[in-house]
Write a structure and sequence with these properties.
This protein is of the alpha+beta class and about 500 residues long. The protein folds into 2 domains: about 350 residues, no CATH class; about 90 residues. Helix content is about 15%, strand content about 30%. It has 8 helices and 29 strands. The strands form 7 sheets. Strands 4, 5, 6, 7, 8, 9, 10, 11 and 12 form a 9-stranded antiparallel β-sheet that branches. A hairpin with an 8-residue loop joins strand 8 and strand 9. The longest helix is centred in the middle third of the chain and has 20 residues.
């Protein structure tokens, strides 16, 4: 399939060879997948980048039916546990106690049976006060009591009171045992995966078009990168508007969709048929449970801290590649922040910014020069890479009504950071659909319609000189691991 390299809207009269074979309506009938891809690229080129464009780089995950779809989010079995109480001879420790001194025993109480006999555990000071469990845990109601000693050769060592107060967290280290006749060690820890669930959303649109609108044509010029030759596809104007608005609906659903499942797992809102309307969560709602921060001042230092939070212990150093989606105002803010940040290290790279310019019309300039450049990428420490992506929806003044005091709509200053790498070997953010149903596109033929060869004798659904088109999209989106995403939101959009 030819891939879009550049794109230009033209009037059909500006080019020759208008045929029915390259009308998008005819291509719909022949190859729905091909035209769906074409329309995605047409919309992106003419109306800006959107979330569907970004997700198109990954394969769509398909399911066999329209039931709720689930996925597993693995979680490490190793964790730390909050201390309930520390005791000496069954009595809660006080500030003057010296737990563990002279190799003495003491008890640690935890809310779950998590540690084992022979296991070394550590609190917040880690190896300063290594604790050896010297007996099997004893149940006490819902708690578990462990008899312990300090794993040390220093008789004067003890655990300070402030290190064993309620709430201090402990984790397992290892199980040292005797060289001869040892009998046991600690057991492995298992933790079930987290099951995530979302629902398919069904979207529909309908249009009725007078037959004479087939005469109002629009051409889209494309270039085949293999041959370098241009070719043109065309469609009637009304169908173009229909495609564009339906794609906008899909993009808004993928990004902003809100789940309407009740706490008991049902649905309350019914459609005209009497059956329930099922709506799945979009990207934004799936990200909410992760890392959200409201800001007054945006800085590269704050961005770096957030990206380290997203990466450390979660993403290997060679895969820390993030896309940061924002509006045009946010892109300018990012540029200014990096420009200021870069002053700490270089003299603004003037040699890269100053170049030859164009003399203005009607003015004699002997050596016209230009100055420019915009920061669109940040390569930070520890393998972090951030690429800016301007999303046209962020700056949409019809949808986004709250104005920012610095100009433009507040939503245009929002930054959504997304790990577009893999999670358990799969794209972290991915569209889902039902197998064989990317977009259902049907029409009810009238006397004239753009889907039949011009002048051909064909059957019609009715005698009216008009036709109906219907589109349905069944799909949704997965954010496999929301902890690998984050949002910087201007304070003016805070709900408080």
């Amino acid at each position: 399939m030819s891939q879009l390299s550049f794109l230009q809207m033209t009037d059909a009269s500006a080019w020759k060879g208008l045929t029915t074979e390259n009308h998008l309506g005819a291509i719909w009938k022949q190859d729905p997948h091909k035209v769906s891809d074409l329309i995605t690229k047409i919309q992106a080129a003419n109306f800006g980048n959107n979330i569907d464009t970004m997700l198109a780089q990954f394969p769509t995950l398909e399911f066999s039916d329209e039931r709720d779809y689930t996925w597993e989010l693995s979680s490490p079995a190793v964790e730390n546990v909050a201390l309930v109480e520390a005791r000496i001879d069954g009595t809660a420790v006080v500030a003057t106690d010296e737990a563990g001194k002279n190799f003495s025993e003491f008890e640690l109480v935890f809310p779950i049976d998590y540690f084992d006999d022979t296991q070394v555990i550590v609190g917040e000071r880690n190896e300063l006060y290594p604790v050896l469990i010297v007996g099997a845990g004893i149940p006490e109601g819902t708690n578990m009591v462990y008899t312990c000693r300090l794993n040390t050769g220093d008789a004067d060592l003890f655990i300070p009171f402030e290190e064993i107060v309620s709430g201090k967290r402990f984790s397992g280290e290892y199980s040292p045992v005797e060289a001869k006749f040892s009998e046991t060690g600690h057991q492995p820890r298992y933790k079930g995966n987290i099951t995530m669930r979302n629902a398919f959303t069904h979207l529909r649109m309908k249009k009725v078009t007078p037959g004479n609108m087939t005469l109002r044509k629009m051409g889209t010029k494309l270039q085949d990168p293999r041959s370098g030759k241009n070719f043109t596809v065309w469609q009637d104007y009304e169908s173009f508007v229909f495609d564009r608005e339906f794609r906008d609906d899909i993009n808004r659903m993928l990004m902003y969709g809100t789940a309407n499942r009740t706490e008991d797992g049902g649905y309350e809102v019914a459609g005209k048929s009497g059956y329930k309307i099922v709506q799945g969560a979009g990207i934004r709602q799936q990200m909410e449970a992760a890392n959200t921060e409201f800001y007054n001042d945006f800085s590269i230092e704050d961005l770096t801290e957030r990206l380290l939070d997203l990466s450390e212990g979660k993403i290997s150093g060679d895969q820390r590649k993030f896309v940061m989606r924002t509006g045009e105002r946010g892109a300018y803010l990012f540029h200014k922040a990096l420009e200021e940040f870069s002053q700490l290290y270089t003299p603004a790279q003037e040699q890269m910014r100053i170049g030859k310019g164009k003399a203005p019309a009607g003015v004699s300039v002997s050596k016209p020069m230009g100055y420019g450049g915009q920061f669109v990428e940040y390569i930070g420490p520890n393998g972090i890479e951030v690429t800016l992506s301007i999303d046209s929806m962020y700056g949409n003044r019809d949808r986004n009504k709250i104005q920012h005091p610095d100009g433009g709509v507040a939503e245009s200053y929002r930054f959504d950071i997304m790990d577009v790498g893999t999670s358990d070997g799969q794209p972290n953010i991915q569209k889902v659909s039902v197998t064989g149903m990317p977009i259902i596109h049907k029409y009810v033929a009238g006397l004239r319609n753009p889907f039949d060869p011009a002048g051909a004798v064909t059957a019609v659904g009715n005698a009216v000189d008009a036709w109906e088109e219907h589109k349905m999209y069944i799909g949704g989106v997965i954010v496999r691991d929301p902890s690998k995403t984050a949002s910087f939101i201007p304070n003016i959009l805070s709900h408080q």
